[in-house]
């Protein structure tokens, strides 16, 4: 089992009770915060995702109440922040949705939110609005940021973003109006509409690049995990072989000696299988 102090992996998480899961998830949150402060966004993402994985079963069982819900909201909101920072706005929206969903039903029902709950709700709502803006979902972004300012008028970032979005919406509206009333765009309307399209295309490219980068990083991580698991499995087979040899009174090989011999056998088996497959193909082709 890996130590959480060194790595966000939680190989023994399935054996943990609710209190230990909650405790470890909080540690993951703090570790992620430290990584983010140090400028290591990738490592922060890993810690926060690990924290969410620990809480998944607790949330499904509806245990832990406020503490569990608060951590889920905070961790998802943090993910939304970092995804937006690296221009992966699609993931940012998804994470913000997960954070918002916990408190939104309470808010819409008219329930008075606790100040701490209200603060986390506003933060997640702002981050979703910002990400929606960057992928060209202007009306949805404007709705989010308007709601942010209704709940907390002091959020300066929301004010600035909303002003820019309203300019883009006005430009889009004027361009559409000119198109349907006169059959052509005037120079100003055409320019503004092109600016909107240009911004959308640039953001789409950044989102695509960020998504590709995340996928490549995930593939490298999975390849490393598989390599580590394969190495552990080979060493287990060597240990079993050593035990068998000692029982028989035979000489025990070092791991390097055993591994070299095994790889020779495995390579021979591979070539034999390939030859058999090639022969089968030739046989099939000869019959057709």
UniProtKB/TrEMBL annotation:
InterPro entries: FKBP4/5/8-like (IPR050754), TPR-like_helical_dom_sf (IPR011990), TPR_rpt (IPR019734). This is peptidylprolyl isomerase. GO terms for molecular function: peptidyl-prolyl cis-trans isomerase activity. The keyword Isomerase applies. It is an enzyme of class 5 (isomerase). Its EC number is 5.2.1.8. It comes from Octactis speculum. Coiled coil: none annotated. Keywords: Isomerase, Rotamase. It catalyses: [protein]-peptidylproline (omega=180) = [protein]-peptidylproline (omega=0). Residues 202-239, 268-288 are annotated as: Disordered. The keyword Cell division does not apply.
